[in-house]
Hints:
Helix content is 2%, strand content 53%. It is an all-beta fold.
Amino acid sequence: MILVDGGKIEIVSGTVKGGIHGWGAATIIIGEPDGDVDITNPIIEGTYGISAIEKNIEFYDGILKGTIAAYVESPDQVETGYGVCDGEEDGYKVAYLKKLATIEPSESEITLIHPTTHQITYTYNGDGIVSVRSLSPNICTAEIDTQSRTITITTNGVGNATVEVSAPETAEYLEASTILNIEILGVIEGKVNITGKAKEGETLTATVSDLNPTECNLVYTWWYADTPDATTGTTLATSVSKTDLTDTYIIEDGKNLVGKYIGVTVTATKDNYVDAKFNDITDSSNGGNGTVTIPNEFSIGEPSKDKAKE
């Protein structure tokens, strides 16, 4: 056994029986940082291959062997491009260096609109076989083509999903894995229709129908415009967010709305869905040509109340 109380010790060759134990700020260096890793020399073996109070361990070559553990604290510096591989050999817990393998996808944070199929590419610097596995199969599936190094994601529903891409440890490389985080959003469908007379003092009602999915949060924004084909205009009123499928607006006197078209925009929101907007605007079904009139006023296509009494 070698005990190091402060200072530094370097082992570049040979075998150390009983392991190495560092006290205080001792630095233990195994091998040489020359870019050429030799996993057979030096050999450090004992109850623990290496233990150090303050974990000042540099590991560049050789193998650590311990009957209980190869090391107490993992080495904090190793040869560039390598990682520590843990295993067992002849009754020992062993540790030595292997090349790092990395999987780099072209996208790792992905947002999709259901239903769809989406393809990404990846790079891999190891020599194992890359595989893919959806951890959320109810939301999406994933397939891999190792020849073209592509991954195809197919949505099955909405929500947050994860896909694991991995390659096993080989004789030369450590295992590698990465996670794809996928947000899959749905599309809200529906429509809105305005009923009621477009006259001062009258109440217009907006009714949402064919809403899918149900139980969306709805905000009704009432507005006016000069043309019958407008999809937005000057705001008159905005409701609170609610799940009610209807909302009303009273055409008040004194708002200079005569001759204007009244419209409504419904903004529908729901978790894991893209916000949607539905519009409608008054037309001949709301009296006359759809513009606001005043009581007893004659409008095109509608008799005056005085004439109706005759």
